[in-house]
Design goal:
There is one protein chain. The protein is an alpha+beta fold and 154 residues long. The chain has a single domain (13-151), classed as Glutaredoxin, CATH 3.40.30. 31% of the residues lie in helices and 24% in strands. It has 5 helices and 9 strands. The strands form 2 sheets. A 7-stranded mixed beta sheet has the order 2-1-5-4-3-8-9. Strands 6-7 form a two-stranded antiparallel sheet. 39% of the residues are buried. This is thioredoxin-dependent peroxiredoxin. Belongs to the peroxiredoxin family. BCP/PrxQ subfamily.
């Protein structure tokens, strides 16, 4: 079940593409947590490329952008290198999808993350949810609109 707006996002500790641990509490000043199915898939590559090309949108809102998949950290490193991605890609590899499940973004039938993003304020409260159906990327305009909800409380 997707987290409700107004709820506190669960804590987590996941390795990024460099093997460094990133925690939810370390995302100071607000965050956008983007769950995505798989590195190197067509839609995910396009979608994360759009996020990369629009980092100023997130910087201007004062939030940290991170993306989470069930891929291994080494896969995420290769993906980041191949696509010039500088923001953290977090590996929810083992236990398989445990953080993704806690955020209500795990597709139990397929075994991977659904396309759900959470906009959090500095206290870790969910201020907006951005999602799209299987096979469709989330439009960058949806993030721009959602970021307005967190800017109002930062």
């Amino acid at each position: 079940m997707v987290l409700d707006v107004g709820s506190v996002a669960p804590g987590f500790a996941l390795a990024n593409q460099f093997g460094e641990t990133v925690t939810r509490s370390s995302l100071v000043g607000g965050a956008v947590i983007v769950f995505f199915p798989f590195a190197f898939s067509r839609v995910c590559t396009d979608e994360l490329g759009q996020l990369r090309d629009n980092l100023e949108l997130f910087d201007a809102a004062g939030v940290t952008l991170v993306a989470v998949s069930v891929d291994h950290k080494y896969t995420l490193r290769a993906f980041a290198d191949a696509n010039d991605i500088s923001f953290d890609l977090l590996a929810d590899f083992w236990p398989h999808g445990s953080v993704t499940r806690a955020y209500g973004a795990f597709d139990e039938e397929q075994g991977y993350a659904e396309r759900i993003s959470y906009v959090l304020d500095g206290a870790g409260v969910v201020r907006a949810v951005v999602s799209s159906p299987h096979g469709q990327g989330r439009p960058i305009s949806d993030y721009a609109q959602a970021l307005g909800s967190v800017e109002a409380v930062l």
